[in-house]
Design a protein that fits this description.
alpha+beta, four-stranded antiparallel β-sheet, 9 helices, 35 strands, about 25% strand, globular
Length: about 675
């Protein structure tokens, strides 16, 4: 009992210290404001308080609240430890469908530091973290070394470079790239900057991982129209040799780090959802591969071995929260434990910490992701957080040091980062004036007009997806601009961004047919349901797009007679559709266009599904966006007068740019390409 009390006090102290050190500024402002309102202060401060005054205000306003908060924390922690001691999982409320495996620790979801304005961050942990980051619409490789504040750019190519993996000696990076026309494997010598191509196939190849001796590379390949794991010599002189042959997708391999290890972890959909499997190269029989996770309700991803080869870290989403797990591979009876909240985990060289990504770039309030380094056990090691300027993926960590850049490395390191898209204006406005609506004369849609503030980025996105998918996806649209008096359908917000000239709708009919021209993958973000939209490439030879790695959602099953599918608004498809696809959602985000969350009624109300709607807010709220097009009095008369008097509402001025008429790109209404077969795949 005494030890439990000591443990309880220690945890409360650590939690309190974390709150005070990381969140005092924001809590102080919030509760000071709340206290001011409760005390009915006659005036509000127009300038930020001084540091001493802010501290005094925090103490005065938070003293009573802090006592209450600590009492609640003590009660909750004592209850949680009591449940844990009784063998009851304390986060079972997070489960969806059937219950996940019992866990041996409580999740610590508050260990991501809050970055204060102007706070400088640097990597204190030993070694070099590499990752891919999206800059200027392309994915390049970057490295962050001990003591660095900003990452060093390693590659600079108009094509995408992704999935970096360190060789065991820390001298070479393997990665995948489209720089030669389709997805191939390459190596980068960090001493000389030399880049060597390893594969020369027309099919997709990606996600390399090194054998412990550095002699072999395992990777995922779409050979024969199916994702499988293959092996090849690290110098490209031998192979490829298939490791898996299951009709289901097998991908995202990671080779054990144990020096004599002969085991590969990978993700497979053979059980109907994404589970992590272990296969031995000494007994490469897939029937005897071990399903490490075996959870029908979760989709596990990104397995990565600990440096000693005894544990695997991975990610999975529960009720909209992407959690990081660690599981022993030595004793499979030990349940997984949660160590953080994020994606793309990688171990520190000493095995004492995990680095991972907290996806802030998926929200409109942040342009970049947060790189977090957190201890894997209860220790005094502080959690580090580094704000990066863009979206990040595929972390890899090694104890090496980066030499002075040579060759291509020197060129990349000194090359300026591409600027994000800058919106040109057809007609600049003065303060207090409204922006024009621009007529997209080459678009087949009713009222194809967008605000002058966003029409250029739409056109740029249209050109980009046309090049990437090989057909004019945005040449036809279901909806673009809505006038003020247009009623919305059930499940749609009356303050719709179509009315602000900042939204467009993908053609819903593209999700029909066999094969469908678009596929939708459900993604839960907190309490909200989103849809990641993939566009099927017009050319299916590997030169455009990449294979899907997730089971898409089957909306047609709502009317199939399956009661469960009817109640759930559909179900996952039984197989991944074969072929190559382009991630439209990611391309759209490069130009500031974000997908819309489904309405809570989407399961039984089709207009609330909203997978088709993309919006561009630019950190504006809806009202401010509307004020860019309409006078304030017109908006107030429309939205805030219970019985408005008849008012003539001046519609925004609509202009047709000269370029739109002098060089029309008007597509026909049937410009969807016919399905083409992927070489070697059937039913494409």
């Amino acid at each position: 009992m005494f030890s439990r009390i000591v443990h309880l006090i220690e945890r409360i102290s650590r939690l309190t210290a974390n709150i005070v050190s990381r969140s005092s500024f924001y809590l102080g402002v919030v509760f000071a404001t709340l206290a001011g309102r409760l005390n009915q202060y006659p005036t509000r401060q127009s300038t930020p308080p001084s540091e001493s005054l802010r501290t005094e205000t925090q103490v005065q306003s938070l003293s009573g609240f802090t006592v209450l908060l600590l009492a609640v924390v003590v009660t909750l922690v004592f209850w949680a430890t009591s449940l844990q001691g009784a063998g009851t999982g304390t986060i079972q409320f997070l489960s969806i469908g059937d219950s996940p495996p019992e866990r041996t620790s409580e999740p610590n979801l508050s260990n991501i530091p809050t970055l204060l304005p102007g706070e400088q961050q640097q990597l204190h942990s030993v070694g070099v973290l590499v990752f891919s980051m999206t800059v200027g619409g392309q994915d390049d490789l970057f490295a962050l070394s001990t003591g660095q504040v900003a990452p060093t750019r390693l590659t600079d190519n108009p094509a995408d470079d992704r999935t970096p993996a360190w060789s065991p000696d820390g001298q070479t990076l393997a990665f995948s790239s489209q720089r030669d026309g389709n997805w191939e494997l390459y190596t980068l010598d960090i001493n000389t900057g030399n880049i060597k191509r390893l594969t020369f196939d027309t099919v997709y190849e990606s996600a390399p991982t090194w054998s412990p001796d550095g002699q072999w590379i395992a990777y995922e390949s779409y050979a024969d129209g199916n994702l499988d794991v293959y092996l090849m010599k690290a110098d490209g002189t031998e192979g490829p040799y298939p490791v898996t042959r299951s009709p289901a997708a097998d991908f995202n391999p990671h080779w054990t780090t144990e020096p004599q290890g002969r085991t590969i972890a990978y993700v497979s959909l053979r059980s109907g959802n994404a589970d992590i499997y272990l296969i031995s190269l000494d007994d490469p029989n897939e029937e005897r591969a071990i399903n490490l996770t075996s959870t029908s309700a979760l989709q596990e991803q990104n397995p990565v071995w600990s440096p000693d080869g005894t544990q695997i870290a991975y990610s999975a989403v529960e009720n909209g929260i992407s959690l990081l797990y660690i599981r022993s591979v030595v004793d499979l009876s030990i349940s997984p434990r949660i160590v953080g909240q994020g994606v793309f985990p990688t171990w520190s060289p000493d095995g004492q910490s995990l680095a991972y990504v907290n996806n802030r770039s998926s929200t409109s309030s942040h342009n970049g992701d947060l790189l977090v380094v957190s201890p894997t056990s209860d220790s005094e090691t502080p959690t580090e957080a580094i704000a990066l300027p863009a979206a990040v993926a595929s972390l890899a960590w090694n104890a090496t040091t980066l030499p002075a850049p040579q060759g291509s490395l020197a060129f990349a390191a000194t090359s300026p980062l591409p600027d994000s898209y800058q919106e040109p204006l057809v007609a600049p406005v003065q303060d207090g004036e409204q922006y024009r609506m621009i007529n997209l004369s080459s678009i087949v849609a009713e009222s194809p007009n967008l605000s002058d503030r966003v029409d250029g980025s739409f056109t740029a996105l249209r050109d980009e997806i046309n090049r990437g998918a090989g057909w004019d996806v945005l040449g036809r649209l279901d909806n673009v601009w809505w006038p003020l008096n247009r009623p919305v359908e059930p499940g749609q917000d009356p303050k719709n961004w179509h009315k602000a000239g900042r939204a467009f709708d993908i053609v819903q009919a593209y999700n029909q047919g066999n094969p469908a021209q678009i596929e939708l993958v459900q993604e839960q973000v907190g309490a909200d349901t989103y849809w990641r939209l993939y566009v099927r490439a017009a050319i299916q030879d590997g030169s455009l797009g990449e294979p899907l790695h997730s089971l898409p959602w089957d909306f047609s099953s709502r009317t199939s007679g399956d009661v469960r599918a009817y109640e759930n608004g559909g179900r996952l498809k039984s197989d991944i559709p074969p072929g190559y696809y382009v991630d439209f959602t990611k391309l759209a985000s490069n130009y500031g266009w974000t997908r819309t969350a489904a309405d809570p009624t989407w399961k039984y109300n089709w207009p609330g599904v909203l997978y088709w709607q993309y919006e561009k807010h630019e950190n504006l709220d809806w009202w401010d966006a509307m004020l860019e097009l309409y006078p304030r009095e017109a908006l107030e008369a429309t939205f805030y007068t219970s019985t408005p008097a008849p008012t003539v509402i001046r519609s925004p001025q609509i202009s047709t740019p000269a370029s739109a008429t002098s060089n029309p790109l008007t597509p026909s209404a049937t410009q969807i390409p016919p399905p083409t077969q992927t070489p070697g795949a059937q039913g494409n």
